[in-house]
UniProtKB/TrEMBL annotation, chain A:
Listed InterPro entries: Ald_Oxase/Xan_DH_a/b (IPR000674), Ald_Oxase/Xan_DH_a/b_sf (IPR036856), Ald_Oxase/xanthine_DH-like (IPR016208), AldOxase/xan_DH_MoCoBD1 (IPR008274), AldOxase/xan_DH_MoCoBD2 (IPR046867), AldOxase/xan_DH_Mopterin-bd_sf (IPR037165)
All residue ranges annotated as the Aldehyde oxidase/xanthine dehydrogenase a/b hammerhead domain in the record: 32-143
Sorted UniProt keywords: Oxidoreductase
GO molecular function, one term: xanthine dehydrogenase activity
Span list, region Disordered: 1-24
EC number assigned by the record: 1.17.1.4
Protein name: Xanthine dehydrogenase YagR molybdenum-binding subunit
TrEMBL record, chain B:
Domain FAD-binding PCMH-type: 1-222
Protein name according to UniProt: Xanthine dehydrogenase YagS FAD-binding subunit
Top-tier EC class: oxidoreductase
Keyword Flavoprotein on entry: yes
Recorded superkingdom: Bacteria
SUPFAM superfamilies: CO dehydrogenase flavoprotein C-terminal domain-like (SSF55447), FAD-binding/transporter-associated domain-like (SSF56176)
Organism: Methylobacterium symbioticum
Enzyme Commission code: 1.17.1.4
GO molecular function per UniProt: FAD binding; xanthine dehydrogenase activity
Keywords noted in UniProt: FAD, Flavoprotein, Oxidoreductase
Amino acid sequence: MPETAPRIRQGAGNVGSIGAPLTRREGPLKVTGRALFAADTLPPGLLHAALCTARIARGRVTGLDVAAAERHPGVVAVMTPDNAPTLAKDPDAKDGPFTFRLDLLQNASVRYANQPIAVVIAETLEAATEGARLLAPRYETETPRIGLDAEAPFTPPGIGIGQPPDEGHGDVEAGLADAAARIEAVYETPAQYHNAMEPHAAVAEWDGDRLTLHTPSQGLTAAVGRLAGLFGIPPKNIRIESPYLGGGFGSKGAISGPQVLACMAARLVGRPVKLVARRENMYGPMGHRAETRQTLRLGADADGKLTALDHHTLTASSRFDDFFEPAGGVSHTLYATPNLSVRHRGVRVDTGTPLFMRAPGEATGSAALESAIDEMAIACGMDPLEFRLVNYAEVEPISGRPFSSKALRACYAQGAARFGWEKRPLQPRQMRDADGLLVGWGVGTATFPALMFEAEARAELRADGTGTVVIGAQDMGQGAWTALAQIAADGLGIDIAQLTVEMGSSTQPSGGIAGGSAHTATAGGAVHAAAQAVIAELAQIATTDSASPLYGAGNAGVIARAGRLIRRDDESRSESVGEILARAGRDRITGTGKASADPAAQKSYAMHAHGAVFAEVKVDPDLGQIRVSRLVGAFAAGRVINPRLVQSQYFGGMIWGLSFALHEHAALDPRTGRFLNDNLGEYHVPVNADTPAMEAILVHEDDPHVNALGVKGVGEIGITGTAGAIANAVWHATGVRVRELPITLDRLLG
Amino acid sequence: MNLFAYTRAASIAEAVTAAAEPGAAYLAAGTNLLDLMKGGIATPSRLVDITRLPGLDAVEPQPDGSTRIGALVRNSDLARNAHVAKTYPMVAEALLAGASAQLRNAATTAGNLLQRTRCAYFYDPASPCNKREPGAGCQAIGGATRIHAVLGWSEHCIATHPSDLCVPLAALGAQVEIAEAGGRRTVPIGDFHRLPSDHPERETVLEPGALVTAVILPPEAAAFSGHARYLKVRDRTSYAFATVSAAAALTLENGRIGAARLALGGVALKPWRVAEAEDALTGATPDAEAFSKAAAALVAGAKPSGPENAFKIELARRTVVRALTLAQAGTPARMPALPASPFSHAAGALHA
């Protein structure tokens, strides 16, 4: 067991069951520096690699001063298209919707700024970095296409991962014509970059045709598959270790080009190589959220009921691959309307390929839709919360399917009560604080689909009452080390202090993807199933053993708790795991389990988490500076495994939303396509002083249909609703409707 | 970064000699220089480390009522120096509004004066920049210019100076003490930074090898301690450069303004101070009309260097009026929780 793949077994005493607000099990390792992240891996003979990246956005590299780099003391090798190891598969080949084209030095072409065009490998990081600078690339430059007006829009074949670009029902034009009130508004959201605190780091080492790679990954199985294809080796020859991620946000979902380049560099020099992306290296080859321009047309009758909703999105993908931000998806699910049209159009620009980022689609779409709903409510003279209740969707609007569960009304009610929404004046610019700052209140509805991927797990229960669960799942800060342990401890019927979790390695059963807010449902489902298999076998032994007090109870007649099997109908009759196994001559029982979506349930039900976010902002009336002073979110997402971690996820999501509304914006020079703020100083995300008093209410929701555990995702829903709520609150404070995000002070100077 | 020679200077004279060599640069905290070197924007052939030079890390009140601030005094130490906080409160407020706590713990007084612009094109080695390469051209012109200058810019450079500290220093008429081969001299801070004109590459009056050894606040600067504020308007509540900032200080005598000091930050390649603006306040009743007049005088002649920064002219006016209004109300007894922020008065909390 390598040092970086810890077996975490520590508990907080005698509690451990699902629902307990446990602190992170790996917390002590992290705060004492013993949790080793990928870049902390230092195998003997390690070399360091640095990327040389393109300073143009379109064209080709015509020259590199390789000799100058090679002359620099400490430089071991310069990897360029001329000498890069031959790959077994063209990195531009597409063999599935989740396979994205990579830039692996396959040729001299440049298709976006910051594209890797060479890798310098050296004895020290400093030497590699200077070697990369000394390459001083020469280019043949073409004029880049940047921005949504770069070319005429087209209808993409699919949006997101293969979803249809156009969906809807009824006749939107007729619905608009019939409306008593209408609005039409265009909202713009900028390109955004993930900026996880931990950059993509890779330490690669080859032993013949066997590869060991330490790198953060949100999806180990897919990463192994991609590497196996590229290097032409069997998946079993690849071991990826990813016990901890310093944030992912989607950027570590598919393996990125620079991570593969580290493997190629290690193969080229025959020594282990470490490549840690510099912050600016993360603006280009690691995916991003593309800009959108969303046109919303809404109509409502005299009672405020929507007669039509038309949600048109224009977004951008790269010139060489397809990922179109599915912004309109939120309009599929949120508000009831007889006439619904959701359309997506695309353009191609000279940037890296956009990818999954923090609620891809839902975040952008929600920011626009929730503002538009606010504008429609105003046009109807209605309170924005009341308007949302009038248009409450009892069934999923796009499909007509019933919801597997939907406690959104309770979210609205509990959030509004906590926030004090009833005191909100209808008109804008009515409230000031004691210091004369403008105060505004806004609301937004949160929604995120309850997804489910595929995962497997292995569990073991030993005669001494201890247990182990093994799954190649990923903790990127959300708390998988802890939540999965709670599920496993309950499943095996032991105290969490008796449970060891092994996680984060591709050698373990596939944990699926830590993405789509589906990891607890998926990996947790597999862990639950594996534990159930163990308990079923143990129960089989006990209930068929005439010496056991459980004899004759039948498998279903016993429950596992506190290291014992207990008769369901008579809790006075029980036996410890040790006693059962001792008579059977066994020292342990192992079991495996799987989890995947239930197609029948998915066909019958629409499955989404919901929530309501209430925001208070303060705006300086003269200077325009904005500060969010209060956020209250109320969310219903099925069963809560760990309320402390779930609340933390909601807080994080709401801060993403604040960031979306007021801060994040990747600036590119439209003439060159180069970044102007590819650093954490100038690419703003909220700092502590921007982060207000926050509350997250965990609204009770039982869902018997969504999955075996009854859990929905909590990781991304917080960003939805929040950006719109803040934009709406800015309007309420100032009377100014800013439809171009982020909202900055210059827009509010009047 | 490039290979470079490293010299740890034992004396000021040794430092000045070593740094006079072409390609040499002084290294103090390196909070700006090392970033520039990592990005290949600065490639000095020799670093002259001055952090061990004796006698440059003290704040010393002088018998004549002036205060001498050593070049190596850290931003955090300067902000928390009791004499400075009491006598020049807007200096402390500006410091605490700048950068982050970690950077303030490292960054030095002279380094703050000598920090480079935050113009993104300056930081992009692939963009032509007259600062980096005289005569190359200015890629910022016609580009993304929201943060760029509205005063004092030229067709060769539209960058701004990003310092917070320099703004109150300029308002208070600080002197910059310089050691050079010929001895020592002092230069008013207003003359220390140069506007871009035809030579944006010449950012200060320092000749090669010249070393800033101290910043001196003159005796008369102490008179403003009761009515002095720094106000910083920005896109994020902390850890962001000023969109526009203002330092405003008054003396009030019998309901009228005795003397006024005023400077703007974030609008030009140096802190912007105009005598007419201060003269307009002298003897005036401190009211909105007087403040507006002074603000108008301060931004007289402003013009956008790009369509995206036109708003900064009006914002600068309003920032000056607000800063004067805050100064008139009096220096807070204790540093607010959010120094220099428009929201500083909202929470009622104090700076820890």
